[in-house]
Design a protein that fits this description.
Structural class: alpha/beta
Number of strands: 19
CATH class of the largest domain: Alpha Beta
Bound molecules: adenosine-5'-diphosphate
Radius of gyration: 24 Å
CATH architecture of the largest domain: 3-Layer(aba) Sandwich
Distance between the termini: 67 Å
Length: about 575
């Protein structure tokens, strides 16, 4: 009877899930999963650090609307993936991490890279388990995909001992789970839906917050219909952008502070009231909160809710729209002329004016607003941006627009630096047909810069841009903390004028080094053209050192026109 190896069962499980790409760094005992991959139509992408494997897989899953898969060898390779699991967990993104470990039969004898991996992953995954036998691999894999994907998405860790992977079992003895998901939509409680509709219909100053939880059922038409029929302004979280195009007239991101401080009814869809939205404390005390989330436990955290609806964003929005049918005549027109939108528009206008001169500034060194403005002018609407850093991240929020679903990825809920480069690799592999641009501060870029080599080797044409302001917070540490002169510089300022473009030159690719504002656009255009010809491009931009003074809680503070 035909025998089948454990590693082959893993690769087949990935294929059966419909996943075409996995990310990993080949090493024992998982390298055979990468080896079997192509036999089952699963393309293995070999990265340069396991953290990047988990990041790239997470981005791939987010952009493609499926589960990302990362395979990590053993010992340090598995611990290197921990930050990836943390990012996926904190951002509620589906990821399956397959980690290798020593043979079961040699447990506790000090085998090579023997580590107790499961507890390492337990606090930062939806499930962390070790597979106990080769024949059960498909069962564990189905469990992992189901848990990662359904309910609130998140990461799952599956530990694969070397003998479980290398053992062979009789093919006919393998039980392949089928129909291990339900695709039934999760509607909300009808009474709560009714109350939500009433509140929205009667609101004087309604607003909506859209978060990245809308990615999975992608209720783009419903979100749009809601804001347009009610004349309801909205803001998004950083990764919740693009599900309604950013240039929609009801997008009031540029008046975020004004809108949040004055709304009387707040509809939250697929987002949490965590630090990103000031724990909901910025809303007026008597504002009525309607929260839609797939995870019941989330509703009511940090801020009392008037209406909490447990369910899928799309299903619940459809219910609310149905409940409103026939009751919305004239609402949008009234809102358009009313004091709420008028006041917000004035705020948007004054904030826009306050940064206008920076967008076109000829200052040298180049300032971040100018750099990102040029980026926004060169790349088309369907571009996927990965944005990482501090000044770059904060300014990117203002200047870079997103117009299509899941086209904006950044440091996310746990503010993880280093995601920009590997996120871009995952994103481009998920949607090779659209341009992918990775804009990184120099510190953030440094974390995973070697992944440019991964992009070159696997022919993944991305434009990598480095906003090179020579360090993190420059000398700000000195003045703020009363430290002796030079201290801050050593801690947080890098060797000046580093030519990061030369890293890509070593791998082979199109490189640009920009020192003059007027050189920005042609350099970006050449880089974009190079990616159309299949090359990876790197644009190193020498920029202003001291643009942002971070506040004590780590947020980027003194940015012009930054409406909090
Ligand atoms: P953001 O950082 O974009 O504001 P968060 O990561 O804070 O987003 O929150 C995403 C929320 O979306 C989570 O609370 C998660 O439970 C929720 N969510 C995930 N999938 C769905 C879905 N299909 N429908 C509704 N909510 C969802």
């Amino acid at each position: 009877m035909a025998q089948v190896e454990g590693s082959s069962l893993v690769a087949q499980s990935i294929q059966r899930e419909g996943i075409e790409t996995l990310f990993g760094l080949a090493g024992g005992p998982i390298q055979d999963i990468m080896g079997f991959g192509p036999h089952f139509g699963v393309r293995p992408i070999g990265v340069r650090h396991e953290q990047a494997a988990a990041f790239a897989a997470t981005a791939y899953g987010f952009v493609k609307n499926e589960v990302g898969v990362a395979v990590l060898a053993a010992g340090p390779a598995v611990s290197n993936g921990v930050t990836g699991a943390h990012v996926a967990f904190d951002n509620c993104l589906p990821l399956v991490i397959l980690g290798g470990s020593g043979a079961q039969k040699g447990r506790y004898t000090g085998t090579f890279q023997e580590t107790d991996n499961v507890p390492m992953y337990r606090g930062i995954t939806k499930m962390a388990v070790q597979v106990d036998s080769t024949a059960r691999i498909p069962e564990y894999m189905a469990m992992a995909f189901r848990k990662a994907r359904t309910g609130r998405p998140g990461p799952v860790y599956i530990d694969l001992p070397s003998d479980v992977l290398q053992n062979e079992v009789d093919e006919e003895s393998v039980n392949w789970p089928t129909n291990y998901y339900t695709d039934a939509p999760s509607p909300g409680n009808p009474d709560q839906v009714k109350r939500a509709a009433e509140l929205l219909l009667n609101a004087e100053r309604p607003m909506m917050i859209i978060g990245k939880g809308v990615r999975w059922s992608e209720p783009t038409a419903e979100l749009r219909q809601l804001v347009e029929t009610l004349g309801m302004p909205y803001v998004t979280s950083p990764m919740g952008r693009g599900f309604i195009p950013d240039d929609h007239p009801m997008n009031f991101a540029a008046a975020r502070s004004a809108i949040m401080s004055n709304a009387d009814v707040v509809l939250i869809v697929g987002s949490r009231l965590n630090w990103m939205f000031g724990f909901g404390r910025q809303f007026p005390a008597d504002a009525k909160i309607i929260h839609i989330d797939i995870e019941a436990e989330e509703i009511g955290s940090n801020r009392p809710v008037e209406v909490g609806i447990v369910g899928d964003a799309k299903a619940v929005l459809q219910q609310i729209l149905a409940e409103m049918e026939g009751k919305t005549a004239g609402l949008a027109e009234r809102a358009e002329e009313g004091p709420w939108l008028t006041a917000l528009r004035e705020r948007v206008e004054s904030n826009a004016q306050s940064i206008q001169s920076r967008l076109t500034s000829d200052a040298n060194p180049i300032i971040t607003h100018r750099l990102l403005h040029e980026v926004s002018q060169v790349f088309p609407r369907d571009t996927i941006y990965t944005v990482d850093g501090q000044t770059t991240l904060a300014t990117g929020r203002q200047v870079l627009q997103s117009y299509t679903p899941a086209s904006r990825l950044n440091s996310g809920s746990n503010g993880c630096m280093g995601v920009g480069v590997p996120f871009a690799v995952g994103a481009k592999l998920a949607r090779p047909e659209v341009p992918v641009v990775s804009v990184n501060g120099d510190c953030a870029f440094g974390f995973n810069a070697m992944e440019m080599e991964t992009a070159v080797r696997h022919k993944v044409p991305i434009v990598f841009i480095i906003n090179n302001n020579s360090g993190i917070v420059g000398g700000a540490l000195e003045s703020r903390m009363g430290l002796p002169e030079g201290y801050g510089e050593r801690v947080a300022t890098y060797v000046p004028d580093i030519r990061y473009d030369r890293i890509l030159e070593a791998f082979g690719g199109h490189t640009e080094n920009v020192t003059e504002p007027s050189e920005l656009r042609p350099a970006l255009e050449r880089a974009f053209q190079a990616t159309k010809e299949g090359k990876v491009a790197c644009v190193n931009v020498m920029s202003e050192h001291m643009e942002v003074m971070p506040t004590r809680d780590g947020r980027a503070g003194a940015l012009m026109g930054y409406d909090r």
